[in-house]
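Archive maintenance. Older records in this collection stored only the sequence; we are now back-filling the structure field for every entry so that each record is complete. The fields below show one back-filled record exactly as it appears after the update. Entries are processed alphabetically, and DUF742 domain-containing protein is next in the queue.

ARCHIVE ENTRY
Title: DUF742 domain-containing protein
Organism field: Streptomyces microflavus
Length field: 120
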Amino acid sequence: MTAERPEVPRASAIRPYVITRGRTESEGEPLSWESLVMTAEAAFPATLQPEHLAILKHCEGLISVAEVAAHLGQPPSVAQVLLSDLLRWGLIVTRPPIPPAEHTDVTMLRKVLHGLESCL
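Back-filled structure field:
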């Protein structure tokens, strides 16, 4: 008879305070949920937590803090703490969210819509 292997907990099964090591706020300026993050051109140390590595995998292109939280299956506050670690270590870069357009040209949008409808 073989011994059963213990089941490895999924990231979402681990309590958030364990992932953040008890921290409830990010160090430095907190990132807004709309802030965009992306991996930096730095080598990743082998000592990162699995959650940090998962974030870096998803941050190969611009992604928001809220999207990172959704990919991790964790609350945005947990993602903010982990992202602040990566930012402090120089492994990610941030940029403010893209501001909404100040003026929407309705005439142009109607022309685009008409053009798309004519293609169908």
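Update note: Residues 106-119 form the longest helix (14 residues). The mean pLDDT is 80.
Entry marked complete.
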